[in-house]
């Protein structure tokens, strides 16, 4: 039996290709809500970030989520995402 290949995704901060399960997906749902998608399966536009506080801080500072999610992400949205993101950090 052939081993399944792990999907690769690129971190929007480090531009590094990694296994999908080593990244966290942030998604803009079809109704315009922005949230964390730990399963990686929610419908909508998504962007992947490495599971580190420094990567999230860089994304927030440079507003790196605006382009892939095709919308303006406010500071309040980043703060809300950051609280949830902290639960998945593996530093």
What does this structure look like?
The structure is a single chain. The chain has a single domain, classed as YlxR-like (Hypothetical Cytosolic Protein, Chain: A), CATH 3.30.1230. Strand 3 and strand 4 form a beta hairpin. The protein has a 3-stranded antiparallel beta sheet with strand order 4-3-5, with helices on one face. The model has no long low-confidence stretch (mean pLDDT 94). It is globular and about 50 Å long. The longest helix is centred in the C-terminal third of the chain and has 11 residues. The chain is built from 3 helices and 5 strands, in the order βββββααα. The protein is an alpha+beta fold and 91 residues long.
Summarize this structure briefly.
With 91 residues, this protein is an alpha+beta fold. Helices cover 27% and strands 24% of the residues. The chain has helices spanning 53-62, 66-69, 75-85; strands at residues 8-10, 17-19, 23-28, 34-37, 45-50.
Write the layout of secondary structure elements.
Layout: E1 8-10, E2 17-19, E3 23-28, E4 34-37, E5 45-50, H1 53-62, H2 66-69, H3 75-85
Antiparallel strand pairs: 1-2, 3-4, 3-5
Helix pairs in contact: 1-3
